[in-house]
Amino acid sequence: MALLFRSSPESAARWQPHFARLMPELEVRVWPEVGDCAAIDYALVWQPEPGLLASLPNLKLIMNLGAGVDHLLADPTTPRHVPIVRLVDPYMTEAMSEYVALQVLRLHRRDLDYAAQQRDRVWWELDQKNAAERRVGILGFGVLGQDAGRKLQALGFDLAGWSRGAKAVPGVATYAGAAELPAFLGRSEILVCLLPLTRETEGILDRRLFSQLPRGAALVNAARGGHLVDADLLAALGTGQLSAAVLDAFRDEPLPPDHPFWSHPRIVVTPHIAALTNPPTAAPILLDNIRRLREGRPLENQVDPARGY
Ligand code: NAP
Ligand code: GLV
Predict the structure, then answer these.
(1) What pLDDT shows up at residue 184?
(2) Average pLDDT for residues 171-196, to the nearest whole number?
(3) Distance from C-alpha of 41 to C-alpha of 3, rounded to nearest angstrom
């Protein structure tokens, strides 16, 4: 029973002790030392090179080292007959919620304005609402979106969530599908994107969407860089339609040194750290799916390739 691990070599060293402890019978091969491809049963991967998974003829399960599987589905050679499971780890969910709560509070409490004032040694009191008067909208109301929503609700924010299918969540204004998007956007003073990157959501954060937000709204994108049309964000910040953006994911990562986002006074850049994969908590979750497959039980968090997430 062999597993191919494909991520960085440093990452492999962090995972190995957990595999050894939890499933000692599992032979773990760390890419590029693949050995006999036909002997690989399972693959645990993050951004594998196109064609790698297709080169494993007896692969039974593809496990993603993160929540978003866009990189796997973007490769047309990824075998479609092999189940793909994504990582859903409560530890990561909590991390994302911390990130979202921090950034929403920063925007709500005008942290960027006060940081600029401090740079200029300005002592000036700006208008401030309470959280209950601030309407926050979460695009993508799934595992991460709903947990972040619960924490924002606990802070008192007036919350809405948008998803593909209709949801009923106590205390949250829920919207579903393209038809209800304009109403959701029209009330989102702070918009948080936690969508998966799919054919339908690629480039969704564009000029058209920004124009439907209340004037001066702020954006937090903690999902994927492919959701955002970079030039449209810069234009919306330029006209004042948007007042600020916090970005954790980018079309090119690392964000190139000459990218205008780095130095924009109304953009906060973080290096894709909102919710990092945590081997001690993630390893048991991932290995549980191997056991489920071996015992013929249903897999957890299986991706639907047709839906794209
Ligand atoms: P999830 O549980 O699958 O939730 C996705 C949500 O998006 C669901 O509510 C889904 O609607 C909604 N959705 C998908 N396509 C849609 C569409 N076309 N229109 C409207 N709503 C749509 O995923 P998750 O675990 O919350 O993760 C979300 C994403 O976060 C991941 O895909 C990943 O890209 C990103 N992420 C980023 C980081 C980071 O560190 N920056 C870390 C982890 C994850 P339904 O509920 O109706 O299906
Ligand atoms: C990180 O971006 C993830 O998808 O887990």
Answers:
(1) 99
(2) 98
(3) 6
Residues 113 and 172 in one domain: yes
- CA 161 to ligand 1: nearest atom: 9
Specify whether 114 is located in the same domain as 249.
yes
Cβ–ligand 1 distance for 68 under 6 Å, the answer yes
Spatial distance between the Cα atoms of 267 and 200, rounded to a whole number of angstroms: 26
Task: Compute the mean pLDDT over every residue in the chain, rounded to the nearest whole number.
Answer: 97
Question: What is the tally of structural domains in the chain?
Answer: 2
Tokens of residue 264, six digits:
């924009």
Q: Is the CB of 134 under 6 A from ligand 1?
A: no
The catalytic residues are: 224, 272
Residue 300 lies in a domain: no
pLDDT band at 10 (very low <50, low <70, confident <90, very high): confident
Per residue in 221-275, pLDDT (tens digit) is 999 999 999 999 999 999 999 999 999 999 999 999 999 999 999 999 999 999 9
pLDDT of residue 8: 85
Given this model, what pLDDT does residue 9 score? 79
CA of 272 to the centre of ligand 2 (A): 8
Q: Are residues 133 and 60 in the same domain?
A: no
The CATH number given to whatever domain includes residue 145 is 3.40.50.720
Mutation choice for ligand 1 from 139, 163, 278, CB with most ligand atoms inside 8 A = 163
Q: How far apart are CA 101 and CA 257, in angstroms?
A: 28
C-alpha of residue 222 to centroid of ligand 2, in Å: 9
Query: Look-up: residue for tokens 């860089």?
Result: 225
172, 185, 194, 268: which to mutate for ligand 1, most atoms within 8 A of CB?
194
In a domain, residue 71? The reply is: yes
Distance (Å) from CA 270 to ligand 2 centroid: 14
139: how many CB neighbours lie within 10 A of its CB? Answer: 28
Boundaries of domain holding 60 = 2-89+277-295
* 204 Cα: distance to centroid of ligand 1 (angstroms): 13
